[in-house]
Amino acid sequence: MTPADSINPVAVELLEEIGIKVAHGKPRVVTPVLIGESSRVITFGCIDRCPLGAREKFEDWSIPGSTGRDDLLRPREELLAIRGEVERRVL
């Protein structure tokens, strides 16, 4: 799987609203090294596409609308709802 060239600008804006700076970030492939360095792997219905090692420490968050569509096609309200659910689970 190849990552996107850039982060959806609406997602960048929504994350910056809550103090998360990702404007200069770039999507990247999740590698076995990244998985190995992680204490937990959160997936959104895509564990079948994760590298080796993810199954041993993954937790799948079934968040409506979080997977299966191109982020550039998502309305702001949908991304806002996803952000809110992730924020609720993290904080």
What's the CATH architecture name? Answer: 3-Layer(aba) Sandwich
- Given as residue ranges, the uncertain stretches (5+ residues, pLDDT < 50) are none
Task: State the end-to-end CA separation.
Answer: 30 Å
- Strand order in the sheet with the most strands: 1-2
Helix-residue proportion: 25-40%
Shape: globular
Number of domains: 1
Could you tell me the strand content as a percent range?
5-15%
Order of helices and strands: HHEEH
Taking Cα atoms only, what radius of gyration do you get, to the nearest Å?
Answer: 14 Å
Largest sheet: 2 strands, parallel
Let me know the CATH homologous superfamily.
Response regulator
Count of helices?
3
Task: Tell me briefly what this model is.
With 91 residues, this protein is mainly alpha-helical.
Give an account of the 3D structure.
The structure is a single chain. The protein is mostly helical. It has one domain (9-90): Response regulator (Rossmann fold, 3-Layer(aba) Sandwich), CATH 3.40.50. 33% of the residues lie in helices and 7% in strands. It is built from 3 helices and 2 strands. It has helices spanning 9-17, 32-37, 76-90, and strands at residues 41-43, 58-60. Strands 1-2 form a two-stranded parallel ribbon. The longest helix has 15 residues, at 76-90. It is globular and about 35 Å long.
Features:
single chain, 91 residues, mainly alpha, Rossmann fold, two-stranded parallel sheet, 3 helices, 2 strands, 33% helix, globular
